[in-house]
Design a protein that fits this description.
It contains three helices and 13 strands, in the order βαβββββββαβββββα. It is mostly beta strands. It has a five-stranded antiparallel beta sheet with strand order 12-11-10-9-13. A four-stranded antiparallel beta sheet has the order 2-5-1-6. Strand 11 and strand 12 form a beta hairpin.
Length: 180
């Protein structure tokens, strides 16, 4: 795996960046970026898969369609990430890649086992503040009401001044402490 070169002062300006992958090609993109010596993080989680009247527990990307790559934009050839098989593009902010807020990826990595499986379910408890990661309500913070079987959670949000219960996929929420 790629570790960015250290500068003479021993301080690296490497940061984590989000990479949008081609549909269902996260593992291919991760392998190809790894082959180019980039440091890649592809967190996975256990999901329930229903197919042909059969229910299985499978490992799937925790953030479908995305993975993360650690880059030092002043030293790494980051533009070649976009031409890697399995990658659609780096998530950009203007003309440069948009960095993931400091500490978020490291906190996620600390919650992964040796296989890269992220387990934050045990940390979700009713009444706990949670942040919504995806969809129209992304970045809203609410209170976890309950978890259901089938990877669903209910979050209490204040919408237009009224408490409103919203059902969301489990993958869409993280503890607020994790996103800080």
């Amino acid at each position: 795996m790629h570790t960015c070169q250290n500068d003479p002062a021993g301080v690296s300006s490497a940061r984590w960046y989000a990479v949008k992958c081609q549909p269902r090609r996260e593992a291919v993109a991760a392998a190809n970026l790894g082959n180019q010596d980039f440091h890649v993080f592809l967190p996975r989680g256990q999901r329930v898969r229903r197919h042909a009247h059969k229910i299985d527990l499978v490992l799937a990307p925790f953030f479908p369609g995305y993975l993360f790559v650690r880059l030092d934009l002043t030293r790494d050839r980051w533009r070649c990430v976009n031409s890697t098989h399995g990658v659609s593009n780096l998530v950009m902010q203007g003309a440069a890649p948009a960095a993931v807020p400091a500490g978020i990826i490291e906190q996620l990595q600390a919650r992964c086992d040796a296989r890269g499986v992220l387990d934050i379910d045990a940390q979700l408890k009713p009444g706990q503040p949670v942040r919504i990661l995806t969809g129209a309500l992304a970045d809203f913070v609410g209170e976890l009401e309950r978890q259901e079987a089938g990877d669903r959670v209910h979050v209490l949000l204040t919408i237009l001044g009224k408490p409103t219960s919203v059902a969301l996929p489990r993958i869409s929420v993280v503890p607020e402490s994790l996103s800080a």
